Amino acid sequence: MRTPPPLAVLASRVRTEEKRIFAALDQRGISYVHVDTRRLSATLTGGPWAAAAPYGAALSREISQTRALYAVRLLEAAGVPTVNTAEAIATCGDKLLSTIALERAGVRTPRTAVALTPEAGLAAMEQVGYPVVVKPVVGSWGRLAALVRDPETARTVLEHRAALSSPQQHVIYVQELISKPGRDIRVIVIGGLALGAIYRRAADWRTNVARNAVAEPCPLTPELTSIAAAAAAAVAGPAGSAAGAVLGVDLAEDPEGRLYVLEVNHTVEFQGFQTAHQDRLDVAGAIADHLLGQPVSA
Question: For the residues of 205-261, what is the DSSP string, one character each?
Fold first, then answer.
């Protein structure tokens, strides 16, 4: 009997999350290889690239947006099914594309505007209305995000952005600041179904666990489950692609309790989630089961 080709797990850095995934794959007898994208290369001409990509499927855990996107594009070109897809990675990794996808799907998001130069950024902030958050269109962990409360601060932030060398940083993405109750919410959605949720509490307006926010369990209400699933479906790509996606949906509550989707993450970190739930919810196991075609249950 022919041995099925292994799963490729794409990751240049093996963190606690990836170690958990490897352990879950081992427990289920899933054959896999760790592929460091920093060493990945492919000859695209003069021969069948598919023969050089002997994987049955691929799970992307690459933290570099650029390498994740191009590694998955290479594998998809070779006919390898990927989680997540290149389209989902491209959309989640670009806040402008994410906002467009969420808006088209009717998912509630904060008021948002985009200016293509720092010179036009002040008008974008005035359109949204202070206070606003200025974010890079590509980036994570709250890096280079700024809270702007007035035009004077806005001019300072825009001068800084104009001085950066990357043209991408000159695109000014402006989002309404939701007056959240010292926390935001992350929901992990696997195969279109919500596995669980956490609150992320912080004194700072940025509530990333990577910035020392404290994770606590959050109940999965029907409204939270519905909006998180809708957000995942919106960014996952063609109809039905959400069923193959592993995503983290970040939301904020306003003073009236309305939920707003802030962003969707394609390489979701879940160590804080595991700690908050005291390992009662097994994200790595749910990912492995999903790769086996088994439904996710909270």
Answer: S---GGGTPEEEEE---HHHHHHHHHHHHHHS-STTGGGG-EEEEEEEE-TT--EEE
Question: What pLDDT is recorded for position 286?
Answer: 96
Q: Does the domain formed by 183-291 have CATH 1.10.3720.10?
A: no
Q: How far apart are CA 245 and CA 227, in angstroms?
A: 16
Parse the chain into domains and list their residue ranges.
Answer: 7-84, 111-176, 183-291
Domain 7-84 class, CATH top level: alpha beta
Q: Whole-angstrom distance between the N-terminal and C-terminal Cα of the chain?
A: 36
Residue 13, pLDDT score: 96
* % of the chain surpassing 90 pLDDT: 78
pTM to 2 decimals? 0.92
The CATH architecture one would assign to domain 111-176 is: 2-Layer Sandwich (3.30)
Q: For residue range 89-146, what is the model confidence (pLDDT) as tens digits? A: 999 999 999 999 999 999 999 999 999 999 999 999 999 999 999 999 987 767 789 9
Residue 205 has pLDDT above 70, yes or no: no
DSSP state of 168: G
Residue 54 backbone phi and psi in degrees, to 5:
-80, 60
Look at residue 4 in the predicted model and tell me its pLDDT.
84
DSSP conformation letters of 110-151: --EEEESSGGGHHHHHHHH-SSEEEE-SS--TTTT-EEE-SH
